[in-house]
Amino acid sequence: MSHNLLKGKKGIIFGALDEKSIAWRTALRCVEEGAEIVLTNAPFAIRMGEINQLAAQCNAPVIPADVTNLEDIENLFIKTKEHFKGGVDFILHSIGMSVNLRKGNEYTNLNYDFMQKSVDISAISFHKILQTAYKLDAINEWGSVVALSFIAAHLAFPNYNEMADIKAMLESITRSFGYKYGMKKKVRINTISQSPTYTTAGQGISGFDGFTTFAEKMSPLGNATADNCAEFAVTLFSDYTRMITMQNIFHDGGFSSTGVTEAVIATLDK
Ligand SMILES: NC(=O)c1ccc[n+]([C@@H]2O[C@H](COP(=O)([O-])OP(=O)(O)OC[C@H]3O[C@@H](n4cnc5c(N)ncnc54)[C@H](O)[C@@H]3O)[C@@H](O)[C@H]2O)c1
């Protein structure tokens, strides 16, 4: 059901790989709510993934951009401005990749070249996107930018590895750039800290199944799905959340505020 929350709005969605992706679900929901979008992903992901199917469904162009590459990002904004004949109202950064996780390196045995690559893709890319948009004046007044985070930025989780530190940086960029862009143009910038979600990136974390079940048992409302996340992102892109900026908002069914639940105690009681 559509409420036309994004009628007349234009946006860029980064990170739709396949139909499980949070970005994929969000792209569909934004279009349902009346938005026009541009889709983007890294060239290798466009070749390997299914983004062209999504593009057809959303009537959206796909403009490739490796988010570690400033020229790609600049080209994306220039082409998007041409396409929309103006700036955008919202941006979703739904990008994450840990090279050390992929290579099976423990947190106590990180390869630092890999770590730098992971930081570049998953956190500095957010700064690169915002700085490029800022310089090209590519986001309209009262625009909204959202990135995806995870609670491991605040609490220790054994298997989240270097991504915990990287998400902490992502959340910090959200505050620092949120200040600058808010002052300059009333652009708001927030992160959504999402429940564990079955996607390609999520399933790359070892012990993901067990942790997802644990989070479900630890959340009064249960885990938030990718579709729930898409709906929440739509509200952040809408005009009804105009005064929220520089925040990390937990979208996790209550997990982050729960000490323990009866369901978890029951599994441990002797
Ligand atoms: N799945 C979860 O459990 C979960 C929980 C909390 C937060 N998140 C975050 O949500 C976001 C989206 O992940 P997802 O779970 O939908 O997984 P996903 O694998 O579907 O999406 C990750 C995307 O990042 C893109 N990407 C990787 N390297 C890139 C590059 N160099 N340039 C441009 N794009 C690049 C991939 O192509 C892919 O589309 C990530 O930031 C992730 O950390 C996921």
TrEMBL record:
Entry GO MF terms: enoyl-[acyl-carrier-protein] reductase (NADH) activity
Membrane spanning stretches: none
Catalytic activity, reaction form: a 2,3-saturated acyl-[ACP] + NAD(+) = a (2E)-enoyl-[ACP] + NADH + H(+)
GO terms, biological process: fatty acid biosynthetic process
InterPro entries documented for this protein: Enoyl-ACP_Rdtase_NADH (IPR014358), NAD(P)-bd_dom_sf (IPR036291), SDR_fam (IPR002347)
Family annotation (Pfam families): adh_short_C2
Keyword terms: Fatty acid biosynthesis, Fatty acid metabolism, Lipid biosynthesis, Lipid metabolism, NAD, Oxidoreductase
Binding site for NAD(+): 15, 21-22, 66-67, 95, 167
Pathway membership, UniProt: Lipid metabolism; fatty acid biosynthesis
Record-linked Gene3D superfamilies: NAD(P)-binding Rossmann-like Domain
EC assignment: 1.3.1.9
Family membership: Belongs to the short-chain dehydrogenases/reductases (SDR) family. FabI subfamily.
Protein name, UniProt field: Enoyl-[acyl-carrier-protein] reductase [NADH]
Organism of this sequence: Chitinophaga silvatica
